[in-house]
Design brief:
about 100 residues, mainly alpha, rod-shaped
Length: about 100
């Protein structure tokens, strides 16, 4: 996997973790103040986390698609291209 793509994915996971932690912190404070019930706070945290995961997944898919487009545009060999070439060379070497 491309280093930059991997870094972007790790950044997304970091953002997801921060989002979860921040939402929990805020909701704990709201529970202490009596603004929301503990059950409601848990539901809201769960909702925030689910949305963050969905967003992270969309970003990852979009990043992967862009990398694939770039590889194709630059006419770079993919791993499957290299494996095919290796296989062909092995076959020629056996002849």
């Amino acid at each position: 996997m491309n280093k930059n793509l991997k870094r972007a994915m790790l950044a997304g996971l970091g953002a997801l973790t921060l989002t979860e932690q921040l939402s929990k912190k805020i909701l704990v404070e709201l529970v202490k103040r009596g603004a929301v019930s503990e059950k409601e706070a848990k539901n809201r945290v769960g909702g925030v986390v689910k949305e963050a995961v969905k967003t992270k997944n969309r970003i990852e898919k979009a990043a992967e698609a862009e990398v694939k487009k770039l590889i194709k545009k630059l006419d770079l060999a993919t791993m499957s291209d290299l494996k095919d070439l290796e296989s062909k060379l092995k076959k020629k070497g056996k002849k």
